[in-house]
Amino acid sequence: MKLSSGTVRLIIPAASLVLLLAAVFYMQPRAMSYTGLNLLFNLAVPIALATIAQMLIMSVNDLDLSMGTFVSFCACVTATFLQTSPVLGILILLGAIAAYAVIGVVIHIRDLPSIVVTLGMSFVWGGLAVLILPSPGGNAPVWARWVMTAKPPLVPVAIVASILIAAVTHYIVMRSSFGVLMRGVGGNDRSVERAGWSVIGIRAATYALAGFFAILAGIALVGLTTSADANIALRYTLLSIAGVILGGGQFVGGKVSPIGAVIGALTLTLAGSFLSFMRISPDWQIGAQGAILIVVLALRLALNRLEKREKSQ
Amino acid sequence: MTETLKREEVVAARGIKVTFGAVKALDGADLVIHAGECIGLVGHNGAGKSTIVNVINGGLSPHDGSLSYSGSEIHGISAARANGVRCVFQELSLCPNLTVGENARIMHAELKGWNWRSRALSLVETQLRDIFPGHSIDCDLSIDDLSIAERQMVEIAISFAGIDQRPKLVILDEPTSSLDAGLAAQLMAYIRKFVREGGSVLLISHILGEILSTSDRIVVMKDGRVVADRVASEFTTRSLVEAMGNVVREQEFSRAASVRTGEPVLSMPPRRGHGLAFQAWRGEMIGLAGLGGHGQTEALLDLYLDRNSNWWPTRRGEIAFVAGDRSLNGTFPLWSILKNLSIASLGQLSTKRMVDRAREETLGAGWKQRIEIRTPDMGNRILSLSGGNQQKVLFARALATTASTVLMDDPMRGVDIGTKQEVYEILRSEAANGRTFIWYSTEMDEIRLCDRVYVFRDGAIAAELAGEEITEKNVLAASFSEGDAA
């Protein structure tokens, strides 16, 4: 049977996750338990959601540099308005989704580089977050706390949530008509336009959907940490981009994989724990995390080259 | 004649004019396509074939003239699609990251609702079987995983497929460029069948055999106008080539009898395993002709990379390159004219790795005078110049180097005739001084300036013409193949 190139691209991320997990279990056998797994992957849930949001933006050949500050902003809204006056909170979050759609339209119509626009927006979101929560605080809504600390039988909630996120987004991005159009815009927007579709509409919807998933990331994060801070998720910008790439996605060409993105987010979270287990001092951890990224990406490049050589023969 | 008049007009474009800046792409062209006929459209580079196709499919709105689909005057891409106009473009226009079925979903908006995947698959598979019986394309693969020929087959099949209504007019722009002879024959047979059932096809091809055998009517375009529109049986390969050519404007040039001494300065074995080998001697001006996109630019790049590493610049450049697309890979838009000129020769202009300002300015002043760059100050931004003068700066950039060979990738696109004449003069005198020029041009007048011409077809050199043999007729005859050779 001939493997499709999409499946081949998933092999490396899946294999690196399994390898890392095996290494963690070898060093710390007690992690091989319900509580252990939940602790290992707990923080992966918001990262996975943010990674999915970033992946949606990347599927139309753009990049969102405001992801971290936007998730922080959403976390602040969740810990304050959404908790005290839910209606107002929901309205603010809906407004944020609309803002994302507008950003998508502006980027398309004015033909602006998405990096510049989202970098500018990152200061807007960061400023709003500070206005809402000048000092760390707030409270998590009860339901968010309940969801994130639920204890389903057999499998910890972090794993269940990851699988659920992967399944739902796989359906939206890879199976639905909308997903096809979205990836079509990334692959060849002229051909989508020639077929009579509105590329502006598709882009607006894609950005709105990305905003929605980023909001979920903010809520999940507050559900875990019980309170928020304006700088709570700044790392998410780069983590989400790294997660998409690690999971077999590409910067251009509409080649993305939701399952791969979730796996990428899990791998990144696990890489942090793995380095702690190795007793590497926190000073070196960021560098070591980068080294892991480079190794995985190098493997993928090698695989791509192999694939290309096979095709040209 | 009375019979054709009764037939339904699928598309009628009359007196269409389209201008891009100073260039008249279409100058009052008429094209009427009736139901149940296959029209062959031929013409040389810049004749306006692609422009009229873009007008018909709604991508371009004409500046003058009338355009109607089945009698109603509406415009735009969706109007054209609603009237059953489909187009297979020369450059592949599928989404490479999607599967065959997903691409069908994008092209056919009607495929909505539950279970569209299996319906899309059966649609494409049935159509592929109809057109190319015995094909072996797995429609679950993404376009990336298919070969070029398979991609083209899929695109053709998707365009011919219809769910609620069959397409009325399918425009095929060089559909057989990457198909082998067997597949091309299958496609031509299908076109005949489609036409018999009442559909219409507009076929553009450089293989005249295909055009002559498949079309009912042949339209010949030249300089944005339709110059011949007759029943296919009235044409022969010869008369078709003559209709495309420009018999009146035959100019006389005095070519210096080239003296070949010693080894060729550049040579290249036959490309893609067939055709002729390429050779260039010192002081020659060599033209690369043929239809656009038949491998001329690739040949130039190969010649260049042959001498210069892709990774590391060589110390002394023997070859200079004049790019064709000024804005894409020619000028540095933010720099001054002088900086744009001197960038290629900074090595000679520097002492101790520092650019010697005085020498740079002398160089600039010298070239400003020599090629008459019309500017008060070489320190002005390059964009303050007209397009033609920008192009002159790019020429000067290449000529100011010590390179003995200059490669030119259709550099005169969109340059006015006066500037062209000046540049031709400079090229001639530089060639007489022993420089070698290799010049890809889509314009016949420029090709006729060369000492020797290689005509490209399908990525390989199809013919070599020298001296008096370089006529428009000979170049055209070599650019369009007879038919059987795919």
The helix-strand sequence of chain A is HHHHHHHHHHHHHH
- Count of helical stretches of chain B: 18
The CATH topology annotation of chain A reads as: ABC transporter involved in vitamin B12 uptake, BtuC
Oligomer state equals heterodimer
> What is the CATH fold-level name of the largest domain in chain B?
Rossmann fold
Question: What's the number of extended β-strand segments of chain B?
Answer: 19
Binned strand content of chain A: under 5%
Number of strands of chain A: 0
Describe the main β-sheet of chain B briefly: 6 strands, mixed
Number of domains of chain A: 1
Reported CATH architecture of chain A: Orthogonal Bundle
Structure description:
The complex is a heterodimer of chains A (313) and B (486). Chain A has a single domain, classed as Orthogonal Bundle (ABC transporter involved in vitamin B12 uptake, BtuC), CATH 1.10.3470. Chain A is 77% helix and 0% strand. Chain A is an all-alpha fold. Chain B is of the alpha/beta class and 486 residues long. Chain B folds into two domains: 2-244, 3-Layer(aba) Sandwich (Rossmann fold); 266-479, P-loop containing nucleotide triphosphate hydrolases (Rossmann fold). Chain B contains 18 helices and 19 strands. Chain B has helices spanning 2-6, 49-56, 77-82, 100-107, 116-131, 148-160, 181-196, 208-214, 237-244, 296-307, 326-329, 337-342, 346-349, 357-371, 387-399, 417-432, 444-447, 472-479, and strands spanning 9-20, 23-34, 38-42, 64-69, 85-88, 169-173, 200-204, 217-222, 225-231, 266-268, 278-280, 285-289, 319-322, 350-351, 354-355, 405-409, 436-440, 452-457, 460-466. Chain B has a six-stranded mixed beta sheet, sandwiched between helices. In chain B, helix 16 (417-432) links the parallel strand 16 (405-409) and strand 17. In chain B, helix 4 (100-107) packs across helix 5 (116-131) and helix 15 runs parallel beside helix 16 (417-432). Chain B: This is Sugar ABC transporter ATP-binding protein. Chain B: Keywords: ATP-binding, Membrane, Nucleotide-binding, Repeat, Sugar transport, Transport.
